[in-house]
Amino acid sequence: MNMENGSVRSSTENVPSTTQSTITLDRKEDDKEDEYDPIEHRNVVHPTSTLGAFFHLLKSSLGSGLLAMPAAFKNTGLVPGCIGTVLVAVIATHCVHILVSTSREVCKKARVPLLSYTDTCEEVFKHGPAKLKRYSTHIRHFVDAAMAGVCLGGTSVYVIFIASSLKDIFDHFIPSTKYEVEVYCGILLLPLILITQIRHLKFLVPFSVLANVCLVVTFGITCYYTFTDLPPISNIEMVAGVEKWPLFLSTAIFAMEGINVVMPVENEMAKPQDFLGCPSVLNVTMIFVAILYGVVGIFGYMKYGEGVLGSITLNLPEGEILALTAKILVAVAVFFTYCLQMYAPMDIIWTRIKPNFSKNYYNISQIILRTLSVTLTVILAVAVPDLELLIGLVGAIFFSTLGYFGATVFRKKHFVADLD
Question: Which domain of life does the protein's organism represent (predicted)?
């Protein structure tokens, strides 16, 4: 402060104009840093359109689990099954909202354009409460292990699903030669290895579209058989024993939860701002998914009752061409879903092991990694060929771990408040 003629004058009056300009510029730069928008800084090599993202997200939720919903309803009865389907859909959608919004918040803090699911978990702990920072690396390892479990368990279910459909088809056309499901799992090994070599989501869009078309047609055929000669509602159980309800939850979670695909889809969107909001890719997809799952579960259970199998397509008549067409189409749909579900874990594993290889060996290393991963899923499918049992096991352990871990840890109000 300067004293002149008995008055107090601001020291900035004597500061050269160039210095004042520098101070103003620095403040503007600081403000600009505080307004860091990760979406504006993204530079995706092969961006996915909003419609493509919708198909990817839809495909991740509409797989073999859709056709397993009647078996899920068998474990609760009709009324709890309807309520449970809505609740699981709402919770799953809410968890994805928390995950994506939290990932964007931590991107601003870390000043990076995008983060994977694993990176988000680690960065949240790094920038969260001080007492949790030391656990960031451990959390990363935990999430990677859970993602690997989803990869092995979830895609092994797909292998069994495809193999079971192929067995029904070939048993019809070649009745003299009936192989076990495990044999068809082995036959699928080479085709699955080849399709899993696709490394960019953009190039998987046509397969997702084709898979969705196949599922829609299969859904139509299944509805045709389901609504034909539908028995009276009095023949089915309204409320099953509570001890079986956990089996419904595990199957429904497996069916609807596509948490391992969410971040790759959102990160590679050309307009990621369309992912959240109302309406949005996420909300529109999950409403559509919940309706489909409810319809298939209700009427599939009403049609086949306690005799419904792990996939309702396995209950369709064996000797009819239309039923066989549905089994072929659903096998094709799940086959293409397999490569989409493998995308996220392959991306995570490759990111971790990539520094250990020379650039010249990147291509062959990825080929070997993907080949070994597919082989493991086929081995697991051969070891546990019970479709309904494996769906419940994977949903209860792996998908619930990834889906609801984020909702528990990343509660946004606490996360934002504790950022340092």
Answer: Eukaryota
